[in-house]
Design brief:
By secondary structure, this protein is α+β, with helices and mostly antiparallel strands. The chain is built from 4 helices and 9 strands; from the N terminus they run αβαββββαββαββ.
C-alpha cells in the first residue's frame, strides 16, 4: 500500500542508490553529494560539485487506469490506485567538464546495473513492500531536453532524463461495497470457418 508520500519515497530510493554507488562507493568513491534540488537551486545553495537528481514531471500511466479493481473480501473492492510515471533530470555539476562527464558516466552505469529497484532498495512507504520500480533512460531529443532547461531559465547543461515507472498512489477513501460473486459460469464454443 502506497499513500501520497510515494513520490518522496521513490526520490529517496533513487538518491540512496546513487549515494551508495557514487558518493560512498568502496571501490572508487567520487565524494560528490546527490541532491534532489534543481540545478539552479544547487548553484544557489553552493552544492557544487554534486549531482542534481531533480523530479521535474509527474504524469499518470493511462494504460493501467483500466485495470480491474482488487477484491479485498467477498463484499469489498479496493479503489483502483493512481499509477504515476516520474521523470527525473539528472545533471552532473562541477567546474571541470571532464568531471561532469565522469559523473554522468557513473550515473548511467549505476542505473543500468540497477534498473529495477525492489526490496531493500526501496525507502519510505515502499520499504518492505512487494512494489518494484523500473528505472529507464528516457530518449528525449535535444529539443525536448532544451525545453526543460528553458523552463528552468538556465542555459543547457550536460544532462540526461530518466523515467521511473510505476509508482501507485492508493486512494484514502473507503473500499467500495460490492455484491459477492455467487455463481461462476464458464462456457466455451468453437468458431468454425465458413469455407
Amino acid at each position: 500500500m502506497s499513500d501520497y508520500s510515494v513520490l518522496s519515497a521513490v526520490s529517496s530510493s533513487l538518491q540512496a542508490m546513487l549515494t551508495a554507488n557514487i558518493t560512498n562507493a568502496l571501490a572508487v568513491p567520487l565524494n560528490v553529494p546527490i541532491q534532489l534540488f534543481s540545478p539552479p537551486d544547487m548553484n544557489t545553495l553552493g552544492s557544487v560539485p554534486g549531482i542534481s537528481l531533480w523530479l521535474y514531471k509527474v504524469s499518470r500511466m493511462a494504460e493501467m487506469l483500466n485495470e480491474p479493481p482488487e477484491r479485498r473480501s467477498a463484499t469489498q473492492l479496493v479503489r483502483t490506485p493512481l499509477p504515476v510515471l516520474m521523470h527525473y533530470l539528472v545533471t552532473p555539476m562541477a567546474s571541470d567538464p571532464l568531471t561532469c562527464q565522469t559523473l554522468l558516466g557513473r550515473v548511467l552505469q549505476v542505473f543500468n546495473d540497477h534498473s529495477i529497484l525492489r526490496g531493500a532498495d526501496l525507502h519510505g512507504v515502499l520499504q518492505n513492500s512487494t512494489e518494484q520500480l523500473r528505472v529507464n533512460l528516457e530518449a528525449l531529443t535535444l529539443e525536448e531536453l532544451s525545453l526543460v532547461w528553458e523552463a528552468l531559465g538556465e542555459p543547457y547543461q550536460l544532462s540526461v532524463t530518466y523515467l521511473v515507472q510505476v509508482a501507485k498512489i492508493d486512494s484514502e477513501l473507503e473500499h467500495v461495497k460490492s455484491s459477492p460473486v455467487l455463481d461462476k459460469e464458464v462456457t466455451y464454443s468453437q468458431i468454425l470457418s465458413m469455407t
